[in-house]
Amino acid sequence: MELLPRSPAEFGSARYWDRFFRQRGQRPFEWYGAFPELCPVLHKYVRPRDKVLVVGCGNSELSEQMYDVGMCQDIVNIDVSDAAVRQMRERSASTRPGMSYLLMDMLHMDFPDAHFQVVLDKGTLDALLTDEEEATLAKVEQMFAEISRVLQVGGRYLCVSLAQAHVLKKAVEYFSQEGWVVRVHQVASSGDKQQFVLPVFVYVMTKFRKVPGSAAQILEICPEEQDRPVRVESAERLLAAVKDRQHYALLCSQISKTPCREQVSLDLCDRESGKPRYTLHVVDSPSVKPSRDNHFAIFIIPQGRETEWLFGTEEGRRQLAASAGFGRLLTVALHREQLYEGMAAIQAELSGKVMELAPPGLPARQQVPFLSVGGDIGVRAVRHRGSSALSGDFVVEDVKGDGSCYFRRLIFLQNRNVVQSEARLLAPTPLPGQKKKRKDKKKPSPTESPGAIDKSYLCCEHHKAMVAGLCLLGGPDALPGELAVLVVGLGGGSLPLFVHDYFSQARVAVVEIDPSMLEVATRWFGFCQGERMQVHISDGLDYVAKLAAEAPAQYDAIMFDVDSKDLTVGMSCPPPAFVEKPFLQKVKTILKPEGVFVLNLVCRDARLKESVLAALRAVFPLLYARRIQGEVNEILLCQAGPAARRSPSELGARARALEGALRQPGRPWDSSYVLADMLQAVLVL
């Protein structure tokens, strides 16, 4: 039996609906939203003494159920279908004396003005507003005008809808311009199999007298998980909030039926501020053989560790999921702007939401474990917040790593998943005569500084490789003597500090375009200037160009570790202008004949990367590359002089010799830092 219309326009035709209800018979037809789901919202806005008008009632049981539970017992139902009206009269004539059914067009109603406290519409607006043709919009405006006319001031128009963008936009614009309060509720799902994948919404438009000349709009949204409405500043923001919830429902529907071929990510936002509170990644492991207990788990990433390779990259999360042994692992990253009371509180907050992302085949009432590293949520303490005209907003924060180690990090908030600079913190050292604290004493507060900066430790793997590249200088078995080193890009200052402290005869010049970074490095990362360490606040492009014109061949080593602020380019380090051939010629000019140019390259665009390598080869005949495992970074060691091309084994030998010279009695050295290891995987380009 064919019940669907031949065209969307037929949804507004009385003839179509007569044929529909005659063919369907006595079976009630519900567009969407069962009464148990709608009841919590309707109960807020329909009072027992209200006079209620239901427009486009069809043969839905909604008004009957409202009547039977005592929500309201003065209900008038209208419809353009004579067949539907006759069916409904027969069903309710003897059992519901306060219920009436009238054959009437809602575009031309016979009721007097201000006759009802509530007008209820379940799917009628959606059926009428099938397109945005002029004739259709005229009918919709006539419908709204009639509803406005028959409603009292303070009355509510309740519209149950799937909230298609053009439908919601029209309703919000019309009634907000009339001075009404507009609130959109998302209807909570019962959990049963739904006729529609998209969530159901109820628009609540409350009539107020229009104030001449007032442009104020009151627009609110009530997500399904909360009762309190959230104010939004514009119709566009309201539509966007609804769209986000529709996309989320589609995502949940999709991944509940089939495994994810690619990792899916989404943000869960704070109810009050609207800012992201949790970032979720759904990771499926097809290789894991499913059993009753390994379908699904939640992994809480400790605060401050979301940038680590295991948690912050697709490959890392894939390995994490496989090693955890679950078919689907949901990783949860915590945001620095939010407060968390502990693992139990996070579990209580997320338990309902994460089950919406459960995999297909999850057994009913299955306990889903919450996992973490060491069973806690980690420690993150923001030490400083700042803003720079060049770098934007940034934070300096202390985080707890593995074991008892703490690290200080600089994060640019425009790229919050990347650690810009990092330093390890030393454990506090008791003063002379001060007793050590007993182990059973109260743990230090996360807001207390763990200690000073450990300047002997290079946190970043690419910095270790850059320092190892200095083995190309000097003789094969000796530490380079007096060195002139230029570092472009200061960050937290750990790279130039290490070169300054461990190459005791090195004179280090640092070029930094952003004066805020010098202040941050000095105050928070232990950086200091002196006779052998000078910082120049300048654009690196201008500084190098000026030196090339005035003082050529003066540096033994030039190091570029400068990030790009343009996130639209597929290369985040360095900015493209730093690797154009004319500028590289200037770099070569200020480099001594046997000097080394060390470049930190972070490029995801394969074609752009090849053009960068071509420009480097054209200027520097000797080119070595060291890829950093698990990262996009690649360290390029470039030489232009007559030095012989060296094999990786030769480079390793020189690196071991350099390390031996750098390790001096009484000078701290990180035992995990082996220079030769940094050059074992070097490629000769």
Mean pLDDT: 84
CATH topology of the largest domain: Rossmann fold
How does CATH name the architecture of the largest domain?
Answer: 3-Layer(aba) Sandwich
Helix content, binned percent: 25-40%
Largest sheet: 9 strands, mixed
Number of discrete helical segments: 19
CATH superfamily name of the largest domain? Answer: Vaccinia Virus protein VP39
Name of the CATH first level of the largest domain: Alpha Beta
Uncertain segments: 1-7, 429-434, 437-449
Going by helix content, strand content and strand pairing, the class is: alpha/beta
User: How many domain regions?
Assistant: 3
Strand order of the biggest β-sheet: 3-2-1-4-5-7-6-8-9
N-end to C-end Cα span: 71 Å
User: What's the overall geometry?
Assistant: elongated
Radius of gyration: 34 Å
| Count of strand segments | 27
* Strand coverage percent: 15-25%
Domain Methyltransferase: 50-171
Region (Disordered): 429-450
Family: Belongs to the methyltransferase superfamily.
Pfam families: Methyltransf_31, Spermine_synth
